[in-house]
Amino acid sequence: MRIDNFKVEEWFNKYEYWAKYDLADTCVESLSIEELFEIVGEKDRHLSDIFSRKLNYGDIHGSERLKNAICSMYSNQTPDNITITHGAIGANQLVMLSMVERGDKVVSIIPTYQQHYSIPKSIGADVKLLFLKEENNWLPDLDELEELVGDDTKIICMNNPNNPTGAVIPENMLIKITEIAEKSGAYILCDEVYRGLEHNGVMSKSVADIYEKGISTGSVSKVFSLAGLRLGWITAPDEVINEVNHQREYNTISVGILDDYFASLAIENKAKIIKRNLEKINTGKKILTDWLENETLVRCVIPQGGTTAFAGYAMNTPSTELCKKLQEETGVMILPGECMELDGYLRIGYGNNFEQLKIALEIFSKWLR
Ligand SMILES: Cc1ncc(COP(=O)(O)O)c(C=O)c1O
Question: What is the pTM of this model?
Answer without folding.
Answer: 0.98
